[in-house]
Amino acid sequence: MTNHRSNLLVSLLTLLAIGLLLGVPFVLRPHSARVDYFEELVIVSPHDESAKIEFARAFSAWHYKHFGQPVKFVWPAIGGSGDITRYVESNFAPQFRRVIGDTRNADIYWREVDRPGSTATQPSKMTMKARSLRDASIGIDLLFGGGEYDHDTFKKKGFTVPYDVPTTNPDFPDEPSYLTIVPAQLNGQPLYDPDHYWYGAVLTRLGIISNRIVCRKLNLVPPETWADLAQPCFRDQLALADPNFSGSAKLCYEMVLQEKGWEAGWRILTNIAANGRYFASGSTQVALDVSRCEAAAGMMIDYYGRTQVDYIGRDPTTGEFRLQYVSPTGATATTPDPISILRGAPNRKVAERFVQFVLSVEGQKLWMCKVGTPGGPEKFGLYRPPIRPDVYENFRDQMIVQEDPFTEKVALKVSGRVRDARFGLIGPLMRAAFIDNSDLLKPAADRARSAAPDSPARREFDALPFPEGDINASYDQKVNGPPVTMWQWAKAYGAAKLETDKETIAADLTALFREKYQRVLKASQ
Hints:
By secondary structure, this protein is α/β, with parallel strands linked by helices. The protein is 49% helix and 11% strand.
């Protein structure tokens, strides 16, 4: 019995010693190292992992400092801008359909839903009905990134809500408010929504990345203009992204059309597509394949290009960078990459604080400062131009990229009206013309390029699939018949409410281009 009690006492003392050994460090560690409880943010974002890591780390630390709570970030792995748009819409759609039926969300004046009494006119019956959707939710707090068009679309469909950034903010007492320092427009591009449904969080440019090693091996001059990419010498040497999944790729193709116009721009896009090795589902694949010497060049957003140039580094024998990134001079615009709060955000309070942080000087420094500089990123350089002019003025010596979009002269001014009217068509149009018909596009391009300039094959290949038409002309497919101009196709696709209607339009486009390429091949025989 005595031995049993002794063994029991030894066991208890051993357990107590182990408990003290494990517990004392926890009790004595500084309060800043403890995570007693946390707030949570769920954010959908096409930004790369480096941006997500840096902003999650910096904001959680900032939130702990000011509010005593760290923040846990959840980033659903959905994909690029196109995937995110479809995901958000498909999750909101059932809730909206139960209330408003199949009516287009854009027919509802959502500002009146979110700010009752904001207009002097009587709200429509559909707007009044939609007020019951004010608290609809899909369990996501924020959309962080993507183009202005995506955020505008979400606003029109009622998927986001307005938020007024404070003009005087006690959390950032030593800096001008975002709305007093950021201009409403830059070269014709709005930098934030006038109704405050979205705010530009960072600026974006588009351009061309090329591999100098591959170009030298193939005796190619690294491309610096959109037209360079259309040259026959780049046959099968371009890495391209599918505009149906990549918002930045869609914007690249729109830049070509904006700079050159519909007639010349579409011919350039056709020849670029004929030179493509593939159409990837995202621009990250373009950057990787150019870096791996699997393609000579590609079109992409600026920060993907600059990041890869720096990551791949210099050739030790020549001292030059192995990769090159350029934004074509006078052929691309500087556009905002916004942030907005989704309807029914589960943690609206912290979501608003995150928006404030991203738009503050402290948040903006993460985009452009060198790794390790005070207040800058800790692990990854993000290579993004900030949207606050005062950051360029006060921290230029810390900037990883010295470009200042607010002082540079940019020749290309994008027409927002043209872009918005055509943007929805670009994805299905390019899929029909270049992706679903790639088996005919490439041989047709080869035959046309080898033919005389005035030959039937060249004339047929260069012919527009349809004329531009008049953007102002009204169009009703039931009244006017099948679309025959580019703007009629755009309006028909934009007016399609059901997915089956869009699929029918896409099938018609595919057949139209297939017949065109077949005529080229027949004419070259």
